[in-house]
Structure formats: structure tokens, C-alpha cells
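Researcher: Quick test of sequence recovery. C-alpha cells follow.
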């Protein structure tokens, strides 16, 4: 295998795991800091030890020069090895631990020295500064080698300079102090390095858990893929931190919510303002596929909490799917209506055939007129009050089914519903289930009837369905909305007890409510309130103008029959 092979380069490079890379980098940083701190400490330590040695030498020299007997003995004795000056100098040297104590006259001739052979000779270093009255501190080389020196002038009782005192501290002792301090310093540095290594390990383990032990290249690739995915999907994504601040908005979420990137980092309540959309995204309203209105858009929102205490909310534009839902629900409602009308039409045709066979032509013509007129009046009454085509078609079909079952289905005079529902399909489901239950309850009763009343208060839709049935006992008025609860026998192909549960679920999904009470004239009265059941008028107009499918639709409204 060549030295430049990929396997060779991989072994010589950094490890791929984030844990290993972070640990190695932090250990290198900790070791570098420890070495740098040790070097920075040792560099001034040497200078400090030199300065301390020179000051100590100067202090010993000053103490020696301050003794009056030294100057007096220098003046009245000669430079001999047994003289009083040599004795005093040796006594001071031994007591202070100095390397030497040299006392000289004004000509620089030694009166004392550690080496007695040097007594009477001129000193090897220049004494002029000390003889001039200036204190001297220096590191220099003399007859005894390198030493830290202190020199001061020696004065007599009258203050006249009669000589000088030079004291030396052996430089090897200074170096020994420096070397002696290094093990302790290295011990501290090693301790600091150990603490740094432990901290590096703990941090690396935390990073490993948070990054799921991925390599840096994998994290970078995931980030790039996430950015491409978030900004490429046709679903809005809003990420929130644990404090409820926005930390991510993809392009679709910005479009649906009408926000820009400047709101990133702001609290959700500040960015969106108060309202149902804010409550849904913040988690104050819980559930799945929650409907909310933002400006002129109907949105379906879902929220998923994250492990760090935040959440990710997804938004879908319901307005873009509304036409497909309208067409599907319209087709389904019309099929049910046609099925009922087919059965009713067969009975009427049989009646008409019998009248013709009996040659009762006038009665046959009168029968045809009554049937056609009754159907026309019912359809016109509903479509004049209910402008939403899906709901109008449903009620026309239910009226036919009710007539077959001997139940009168009516719509009050003050009923009015514009064609700008937020969730037409949901309201059709709600009305369909309530009317079916009302027909079941009213069928077979005296003067069987069902009344469907739909009103609007601003953007709020209020639906009430009355029937002439036996009503609902007070203790069961909450239980009937529980999924699976029913007073009827379950069919062989499925289960009962899901209609009213679905009604309440659909109402609560739009922020509304569903309840049951007693009608003023007996029977049950179901009331559904949808606080944001209608879109803004401009939204309805824009949908009708912009949607190309409306031009080709053939069943958008129940047509009125000509009078």
C-alpha cells in the first residue's frame, strides 16, 4: 500500500467521531495553556530571584557599613589576614550566609576577602560608583565566579568616605532556588492539566450525547439537507424554543403567516399578536389538525413538542384544498339525495301509472303539479337561505329523505348562511350527523318534525337542530358525545356511537363547542358554535375569482327550478 493511499491518510488524520475530536482539541488546548502558564511563570521568577539576591547583598553591605568600628579599623590598621577588618568581615559573612564580604579602602585595596591571599590586592571589579557614594546592585563575575552583588560606600564618624563594602551572594544558590521551585510548579501545572482533561472529557461526553455521536461532516451534511428540505417543502414549519421564542421559520411559514425573518428570536405572542393562531402554535389549544385563520388564509396546524422543551409546529394551507373538498362533499351529498329521490320517484311513478291506467287524467295532472311544486318550493326555500352549495345540497337531500320517513324538515325564516365558510366539509359533516340523529329520534312520533337553524354573528356560526323526539335525559347529555356510546344496536358491518363524538371533535378543532339541551316545545336541541366559522369577505371573493375550477364546476349550487 502506498504512503498516499486513502486508508493511510485516514489513519494519520483526526478521528471522525465528534467526541474524539473535541476531546483531543480540548486536551491540546489544556496542555498548551499549562505549558504557556508554566513558561510565563518561570520567566519572571528568575528575574525576581536575581532581584531578591541583589537586594539581600545590598542590605548586608549597608549593615556592614553602618558599623562604626569597621571604618575606624580600616583607618588605623593594615590589610592583613589577621587584622580586625578581616575578622569583622568573616563574622558578618558567616552570620548572613553571604558568599563573601569585601571591605576596601578608597584605592580599591582589599582589607578583607574570603580568600586570604587576595587581601592587600586591588579588587577585580570597578568600585568607582560605590566610592562615589552610590549604592550598586548587579550580577557580575569576580574572582569567586558569578554572583549577585551589593556595594555601598564606607563612611567614618564625620561622614567622609573612607572606603567601600562589597557583598556577594553566590549565584548558584539563586539558581538552586529556581530549580527547587520547578517541581512544585510542575505539580500545580499537572494538577491544572488533569482538571482540564477531566473537564474536557465531561464536555466531550455532553457534546457526544447532544450530537448523537455524529461526525462533524455528518452534522454539516444534515444541516445542509435540513435547510434544503425546510425551505423546499410546501408545508409551513415554525420552530419554538422553551421560552416560546421563534427560532426558525421556513419560506412557506413566512408566506402563510405573513411574517419575515426579522421576527426570529421574538416571542410568539409579540410576532403574531393575540388570537387563535397564536394559541394553537403556543400549545394553549391542543389537538390534531386544528383549524385557524390567519389573515385571509385558513390553516391546519399541528404541534409536536421537542426534547429540549420547545416545539415544532406545521402549517398547511386549507384554502388551497377547499375546492377539492367542496367537490367531494357535494358529490357525496348529491348521491345520497339522488338515492332517496330515486326511491321516492319510483313510488310517484307507480302512482301516476295507476291514475293513467284508470283513465283519471285530471287527477294525474293535478298529482304531477303537486309533486313538482312541493319539490321546487323546498329547494328554493333552502338555497335562498343557505348560500353554501355543499350545505344547501345536503339539506335538500335530507328533506327528501325526511319526507320519505314521514318527518317534516324545515328551515326557519331567519336562517342565513353566506358562502364563505372556513370549513364547509366539516360543517356538512356536523349537520349531516345531527340531522340523521334528529330524523331517527323524530320518526314515528306525532307531528314528526326536524328544524335546522343556522345563524351568523360576525364571523361566528351558530347551528341549532331541533327535533320532536323524546329528548335526551339530563344525566346523559355529556355521555352521548363519548365515542362508542349509542342507544341503538350496532350494525353488522361496523360500530355506532361515533357520529356525535365526531360532531364535538370537529367543533372543538375549530375552537368551538357542541352541547345538547331540551327544545322549548319538547325533544332535543343540539347547538354547535364555531367562533371562527366564516372567512373574511375579501377571502371568499378572492377564492371565487382566482379558482379556475369554479368555471367548469357543474354542481356548485342546487339550481332553482323555473316557476
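Model:
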Amino acid at each position: 500500500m502506498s504512503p498516499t493511499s486513502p486508508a493511510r491518510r485516514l489513519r494519520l488524520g483526526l478521528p471522525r467521531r465528534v467526541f474524539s475530536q473535541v476531546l483531543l482539541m480540548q486536551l491540546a488546548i489544556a496542555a498548551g495553556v499549562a505549558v504557556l502558564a508554566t513558561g510565563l511563570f518561570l520567566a519572571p521568577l528568575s528575574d525576581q530571584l536575581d532581584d531578591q539576591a541583589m537586594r539581600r547583598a545590598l542590605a548586608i553591605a549597608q549593615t556592614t557599613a553602618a558599623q562604626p568600628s569597621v571604618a575606624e579599623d580600616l583607618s588605623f590598621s593594615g590589610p592583613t589576614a589577621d587584622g580586625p577588618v578581616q575578622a569583622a568581615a568573616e563574622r558578618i559573612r558567616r552570620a548572613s550566609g553571604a558568599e563573601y564580604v569585601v571591605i576596601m579602602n578608597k584605592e580599591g585595596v582589599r582589607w578583607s576577602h574570603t580568600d586570604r591571599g587576595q587581601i592587600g590586592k586591588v579588587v577585580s571589579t570597578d568600585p568607582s560608583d560605590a566610592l562615589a557614594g552610590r549604592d550598586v546592585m548587579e550580577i557580575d563575575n569576580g574572582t569567586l565566579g558569578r554572583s549577585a552583588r551589593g556595594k555601598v560606600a564606607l563612611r567614618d564618624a564625620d561622614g567622609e568616605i573612607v572606603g567601600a563594602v562589597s557583598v556577594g551572594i553566590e549565584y548558584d544558590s539563586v539558581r538552586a532556588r529556581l530549580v527547587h521551585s520547578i517541581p512544585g510548579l510542575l505539580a500545580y501545572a499537572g494538577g491544572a492539566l488533569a482538571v482540564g482533561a477531566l473537564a474536557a472529557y465531561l464536555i466531550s461526553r455532553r457534546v457526544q450525547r447532544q450530537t448523537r455521536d455524529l461526525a462533524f461532516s455528518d452534522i454539516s451534511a444534515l444541516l445542509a439537507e435540513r435547510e434544503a428540505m425546510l425551505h423546499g417543502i410546501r408545508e409551513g414549519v415554525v420552530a419554538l424554543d422553551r421560552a416560546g421564542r421563534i427560532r426558525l421559520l421556513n419560506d412557506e411559514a413566512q408566506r402563510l403567516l405573513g411574517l419575515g425573518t426579522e421576527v426570529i428570536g421574538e416571542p410568539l405572542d409579540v410576532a403574531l399578536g393575540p388570537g387563535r393562531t397564536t394559541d394553537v402554535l403556543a400549545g394553549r389549544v391542543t389537538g390534531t389538525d386544528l383549524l385557524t385563520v390567519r389573515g385571509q388564509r385558513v390553516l391546519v396546524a399541528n404541534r409536536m413538542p421537542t426534547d429540549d422543551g420547545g416545539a415544532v409546529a406545521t402549517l398547511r394551507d386549507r384554502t388551497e384544498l377547499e375546492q377539492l373538498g367542496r367537490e367531494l362533499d357535494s358529490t357525496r351529498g348529491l348521491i345520497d339525495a339522488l338515492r332517496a329521490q330515486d326511491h321516492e320517484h319510483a313510488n310517484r311513478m307507480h302512482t301516476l301509472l295507476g291514475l293513467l291506467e284508470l283513465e283519471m287524467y285530471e287527477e294525474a295532472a293535478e298529482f304531477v303539479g303537486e309533486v313538482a311544486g312541493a319539490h321546487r318550493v323546498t329547494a328554493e326555500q333552502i338555497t335562498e337561505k343557505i348560500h353554501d352549495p355543499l350545505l344547501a345540497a345536503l339539506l335538500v337531500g335530507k328533506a327528501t329523505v325526511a319526507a320519505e320517513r314521514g318527518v317534516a324538515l324545515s328551515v326557519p325564516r331567519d336562517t342565513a348562511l353566506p358562502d364563505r365558510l372556513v370549513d364547509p366539509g366539516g360543517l356538512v359533516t356536523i349537520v349531516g350527523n345531527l340531522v340523521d340523529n334528529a330524523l331517527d329520534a323524530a320518526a314515528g312520533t306525532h307531528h314528526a318534525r326536524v328544524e335546522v337553524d343556522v345563524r351568523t354573528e360576525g364571523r361566528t356560526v351558530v347551528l341549532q337542530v331541533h327535533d320532536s323526539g323524546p329528548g335526551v335525559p339530563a344525566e346523559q347529555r355529556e355521555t352521548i358525545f363519548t365515542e362508542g356510546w349509542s342507544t341503538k344496536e350496532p350494525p353488522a358491518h361496523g360500530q355506532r356511537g361515533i357520529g356525535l363524538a365526531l360532531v364535538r371533535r370537529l367543533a372543538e378543532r375549530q375552537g368551538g363547542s357542541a352541547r345538547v339541551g331540551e327544545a322549548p316545545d319538547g325533544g332535543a336541541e343540539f347547538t354547535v358554535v364555531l367562533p371562527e366559522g366564516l372567512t373574511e369577505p375579501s377571502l371568499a371573493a378572492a377564492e371565487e375569482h382566482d379558482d379556475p375550477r369554479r368555471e367548469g364546476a357543474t354542481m356548485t349550487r342546487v339550481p332553482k327550478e323555473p316557476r
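The domain at 322-552 is CATH 3.30.565.10 (Heat Shock Protein 90).
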